[in-house]
Amino acid sequence: MLNYTLIADLVKEAEIPVNGIISRAIYQDERVKAVLFGFDTGQELSEHTAAVPAVLTMIKGEALLTLGNDTMDVAAGAWVHMPGHLPHSVRAKTPVVMLLLLLRETAA
């Protein structure tokens, strides 16, 4: 028997709160943690870092993304890999759904 997790529609799975941000872990194992975010327009995750490498995928909406010293507009379909400890922030220009994958190191 195969063991897998399927979420057929991430947009339907995400909540976008009025005047807020919500995050919810949708999957976790020893190698990856998947967190689904919903941002209302104008909401921001201020600059921070993650101790492990991470992947951001924009699922819905438009945002201003800062990675280190670079700031850019991103929209649904954008994908970025970030090394651990890279300062980054996200500000929603429209309602946003974003998937974050935190990649844990495993023993060889």
List the topology elements.
Elements: H1 10-13, E1 21-28, E2 32-39, E3 44-48, E4 54-60, E5 62-67, E6 70-75, E7 79-82, E8 88-92, E9 96-103
Antiparallel strand pairs: 1-2, 2-9, 3-8, 4-7, 4-9, 5-6, 5-8
CATH fold group: Jelly Rolls
Order of helices and strands: HEEEEEEEEE
* Strand count: 9
- Binned, the helix content reads under 10%
Kindly report the name of the CATH homologous superfamily. Answer: Jelly Rolls
Total number of distinct structural domains: 1
Largest sheet, in brief, is: 5 strands, antiparallel
CATH architecture: Sandwich
CATH class: Mainly Beta
Number of helical regions: 1
Q: Looking at the structure, what is the overall shape?
A: globular
Strand order of the largest sheet: 1-2-9-4-7
Q: Cα distance, first to last residue?
A: 26 Å
Rg from Cα:
14 Å
**Whole-number mean pLDDT:** 95
- Give the amount of beta strand, in percent: over 45%
Structural class determined from secondary elements: mainly beta
Question: How would you portray this structure in words?
Answer:
17% of the residues are buried. With 108 residues, the chain is mainly beta. Strand 1 and strand 2 (32-39) form a beta hairpin. It contains one helix and nine strands; from the N terminus they run αβββββββββ. Helices cover 4% and strands 53% of the residues. The protein has one helix spanning 10-13; strands at 21-28, 32-39, 44-48, 54-60, 62-67, 70-75, 79-82, 88-92, 96-103. The strands form two sheets. The protein has a five-stranded antiparallel sheet. Strands 3-8-5-6 form a four-stranded antiparallel sheet, with no helix packed on it. The chain has one domain: Jelly Rolls (Sandwich). This is Cupin. It holds the Pfam family Cupin_2. InterPro entries: Cupin_2, RmlC-like_jellyroll, RmlC_Cupin_sf. Residues 39-100 form the Cupin type-2 domain.
